What we know:
This protein is 40% helix and 19% strand. The protein has four helices and four strands, in the order H-E-H-E-E-H-E-H. Strand 3 (62-69), helix 3 and strand 4 form a beta-alpha-beta unit.
Amino acid sequence: MNEAAIQCEIVKYLQSLGIFCHSIPNEAGGRSAMMQMQLISMGLRPGVGDLIVWWRLPTGGTRLGYLEIKTATGKQSEYQIKFEKRCHNAGVGYAVCRSVADVKEYMRLLGIDGGAYR
């Protein structure tokens, strides 16, 4: 399964729980050089996670976090590793996910009960 298909499954799962998420159009490769420069000037940054997720915490409040979607054998780029470190240093949630099961595990680690969103 490719990253796009995995990401679609994850988005569908999160939406089924009522969890808000949105994608980052960071696959700027393949676009014209002019379009890529325009996107970068508008704030596109290499390495940023594929999805931003708004996790409603059981104790109240919301925690924003990033999910980086990878295939079973996919590896993070240098930019993605730097972005992950930036998130951890700032206390921002970040997880590499290869499946819906990985998302469920990350939610478990955050103490989020998916059933709370129904």
